[in-house]
C-alpha cells in the first residue's frame, strides 16, 4: 500500500486578501471548513498544514492547535522547500497538494485524481494544467521522488514559490497525468483571492451546508444554476493570477 499524505499550504499574509484563510464561515475559519471537506476523501492520508515561520502565520498555527490539526512551519517565499521539508517528516510515496484558498474542494474529485495517479503510475497528476473544473477545485498529486528532484534542481523564483511548475514544465523528465471533467466548467471561479470571491463562497456555504454538510460539486452547480447571477459575479479576475505574475517576472511568459 502506497503511503499518501495531503499538504495544504496556507499563509495569513495574502497580498490580495490578508487573513482570508481564517475568515469565518458559519462560525468556523475558512481553513477549517476546507479541512473538514478534505476529510471526507477516502484516500487523502495524513493532512498537514504547511504554513510559514512569519510572525503573522502564528495565527494559523494557533488555529491548527485549537482544532487538533497537524502543521509545519517553513520558509515564507520558498514554498517548494516548505513542502519538501514537511513531506520529509513523513517519508510518503505520494503527496497531494492543495491550497488554502479553495474551501469548496470536493473530496470525490480528490479521490478521483489520486486514483488516476496511482493507476497510471504517473510522477505528477492534476486536473488543473488543462482545466475543465471550476477554479477552486484544483488537485495535484506527485511522487515524493518528483518533489525531491524539483527541490534539488529548481532555481527560478516561480518554481520555488509555486512548488510544481518545475515538474510539469519538464515533461520530458516526468510522466504527467491529467484528469478531466466531462464538460468544461473552467470559466467558473470558486477560489478566494478577493473579497467578492469570499462573498460568493460564504453564500454557497450558507445556502447548502445547513441542509447537507457534505454538499458536493454537483450541489454547488445546481445552486449556481438556480442563481445565474452568481456565475459571473467574480469572473472579472483571471485564473492563477499569482502564478502568471511570477512567470512574467521570471520571463517564462510575456506580459500582456
TrEMBL record:
<dbReference type="GO" id="GO:0005829">
    <property type="term" value="C:cytosol"/>
</dbReference>
<keyword id="KW-0808">Transferase</keyword>
<dbReference type="GO" id="GO:0016740">
    <property type="term" value="F:transferase activity"/>
</dbReference>
<protein>
    <submittedName>
        <fullName>Putative glycosyltransferase</fullName>
    </submittedName>
</protein>
<dbReference type="Pfam" id="PF02348">
    <property type="entry name" value="CTP_transf_3"/>
</dbReference>
<dbReference type="InterPro" id="IPR003329">
    <property type="entry name" value="Cytidylyl_trans"/>
</dbReference>
<dbReference type="InterPro" id="IPR029044">
    <property type="entry name" value="Nucleotide-diphossugar_trans"/>
</dbReference>
Amino acid at each position: 500500500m502506497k503511503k499518501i499524505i495531503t499538504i495544504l499550504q496556507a499563509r495569513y499574509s495574502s497580498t490580495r486578501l490578508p487573513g482570508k484563510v481564517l475568515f469565518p464561515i458559519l462560525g468556523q475559519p475558512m481553513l477549517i471548513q476546507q479541512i473538514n471537506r478534505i476529510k471526507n476523501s477516502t484516500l487523502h492520508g495524513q493532512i498537514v498544514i504547511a504554513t510559514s515561520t512569519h510572525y503573522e502565520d502564528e495565527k494559523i498555527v494557533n488555529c491548527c492547535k485549537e482544532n487538533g490539526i497537524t502543521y509545519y512551519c517553513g520558509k515564507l517565499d520558498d514554498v517548494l522547500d516548505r513542502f519538501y521539508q514537511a513531506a520529509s517528516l513523513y517519508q510518503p510515496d505520494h503527496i497531494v497538494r492543495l491550497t488554502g484558498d479553495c474551501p469548496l474542494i470536493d473530496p470525490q474529485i480528490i479521490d478521483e485524481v489520486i486514483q488516476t495517479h496511482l493507476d497510471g503510475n504517473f510522477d505528477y497528476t492534476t486536473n488543473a494544467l488543462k482545466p475543465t473544473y471550476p477554479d477552486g477545485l484544483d488537485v495535484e498529486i506527485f511522487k515524493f521522488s518528483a518533489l525531491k528532484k524539483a527541490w534539488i534542481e529548481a532555481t527560478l523564483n516561480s518554481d520555488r514559490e509555486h512548488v510544481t511548475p518545475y515538474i510539469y514544465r519538464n515533461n520530458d523528465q516526468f510522466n504527467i497525468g491529467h484528469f478531466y471533467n466531462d464538460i468544461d466548467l473552467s470559466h467558473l471561479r470558486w477560489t478566494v483571492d478577493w473579497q467578492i470571491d469570499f462573498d460568493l463562497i460564504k453564500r454557497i456555504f450558507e445556502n447548502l451546508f445547513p441542509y447537507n454538510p457534505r454538499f458536493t460539486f454537483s450541489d454547488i452547480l445546481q445552486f449556481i444554476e438556480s442563481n445565474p447571477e452568481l456565475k459571473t459575479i467574480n469572473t472579472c479576475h483571471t485564473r492563477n493570477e499569482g502564478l502568471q505574475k511570477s512567470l512574467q517576472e521570471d520571463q517564462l511568459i510575456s506580459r500582456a
